[in-house]
Amino acid sequence: MELKPPIVIASGIGGMGEYLKLIEPKFIGAYTLKTITFKPKKGNPPPRLIATENYLINSIGLENPGVENFIEQLKSGQYDELFERVKIIFSFAGDNFEEYEQVAEKMAPFQNKFIAFECNLSCPNVHFNPLSDLTTLKRLLSSLRRKLDIFLIAKLGIEGAFVESIAKLVELCGWDGVTLINTIRALHVDGERIIKGGVSGPILKPIALRAVHEVRSKTKLYIIASGGIASEKDAEDFFKVGANAVSVGTILYKDPSIVERIAKNFS
Ligand SMILES: Cc1cc2nc3c(=O)[nH]c(=O)nc-3n(C[C@H](O)[C@H](O)[C@H](O)COP(=O)(O)O)c2cc1C
Q1: From ligand 1's centre to the CA of 10, what distance in Å?
Q2: Candidates 7, 8, 11: which one to mutate for ligand 1, based on the most atoms within 8 Å of Cβ?
Q3: Residue 117 pairs with which residues in a beta bridge?
Q4: CA 35 / ligand 1 centre spacing (Å)
Q5: Using one digit for the tens of pLDDT, what is the confidence trace for 146-194?
Q6: Which residue, 75, 70, 6, is CA-closest to 36?
Q7: How far apart are CA 258 and CA 261, in angstroms?
Q8: N or C: which end of the chain has fewer CB within 10 A?
């Protein structure tokens, strides 16, 4: 996969292409859609976003229309203009092993519309954690690889086994890349109320840098770095430790023009 420039819009933050109203497509190497699951999901009740200077906690809970509705939208031409303007990464997940397989099976006939499929194996806001059992994970990775004939990226977190061990398994199962990292489970106290969610933003940068460094030293996988990238310097640091591309997420809420500034380093 060659991304020009090597800058990806992170899944979830960019919705289903909305940020193309704010960022020129020529500054985006690939745009990842919000994760699509087998069943439609309404997501979690509010509050769903807690914003502070250095981090954001979200508990969106993978709100999405479900794969069948998404396919109807695809067929109706709803995303045709988006596909013409930018390369798209399809992100998918399930509530259990079988649902991951079912989404892959349903989407296989449409895979040539996309530059890659990203399998979200690490959402902290759902109950199924595929990274907690490496035997099952290996079975899942092998099965998805057999069903899909496209550049396949595993989106990993740091909760579960060491990320480099999981990445080695990803490579062993014939996958092409990893996105490192997802949000991490976190908690916010608001008076008497406790809000659980996934933390993102600048606070993640050193953790994601370590993950990229470890995975680069142990695999040849394509690495999309994700976590706290909010400046040209952040992007440079990730390339120094071995990223092939950088993903931009939480900062989009504050300053979408950062994508253009990072991209200009590559022109
Ligand atoms: C509001 C919100 C929604 C997200 N939704 C998804 C999602 O649907 N799928 C996914 O793989 N990651 C999702 N993420 C994680 C981001 O794609 C990204 O990996 C993470 O936020 C770390 O990068 P950042 O610090 O640049 O935001 C979400 C993050 C946020 C803040």
Answers
A1: 6
A2: 11
A3: 90, 152
A4: 10
A5: 999 999 999 999 998 999 999 999 999 999 999 999 999 999 999 999 9
A6: 70
A7: 5
A8: C
Rounded to two decimals, the pTM is: 0.97
Q: Indicate which residues carry an active-site annotation.
A: 123
Q: Of the residues 62, 63, 200, which should be mutated to test ligand 1's pocket, given the most ligand atoms within 8 Å of the CB?
A: 200
**What atom of ligand 1 comes closest to residue 200's alpha carbon?**
25
CA distance 34 to 114: 14
> What is d(CA 136, CA 7) in angstroms, rounded to the nearest whole number?
32
Nearest residue (by CA) to ligand 1, atom 6, is 12
Strands 49-51 and 7-9: what pairing? unpaired
Burial letters for 136-147: b for 16+ Cβ neighbours within 10 Å, e otherwise? ebeebbebbbeb
